[in-house]
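Write out this protein's structure.
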Amino acid sequence: MVRIGRRTHVGTIVAVAILGVLAAGAARAAPVPAAMPDAVSTARSAADQMFYWRWSDGSQAKERTFRRSTYRVPENLPRLIVSAYPARPSRAVDLQYLDGSTWRTDDRGRTDARGSVRLALNPYCPDGSWCAATVSYRARAAGRTTSFLVTYAP
């Protein structure tokens, strides 16, 4: 029994002991039961997941140019797809752009049951016109970041 402040934490010790037994069993290559409870199977840290990204048009380029004359409206721009493996647990993913020295969120999503999320770019400047600039973006998930450049052109 552990006492922290005014609370006694018996459940925490039991949970830690169970996880310790599971870890020791895994270290000896013991088989994992097919009916593993969800509470145990989803208790993964961010270090256990790998993240991948690509554009919805199949490109993996870290530098892209999106012309208004080609795409016409933002809905036609390729989306950034971020995928997590394994898919569980679901993770929040932020698409951010650099505004001076501040990162601002352009889109935010959560990975679905397959571990993927689609994020949309916003090519409009604050005045409502299609930007004519190169913008630094980053995608952030579970403390990991990937950066890329997008040039918006008329």
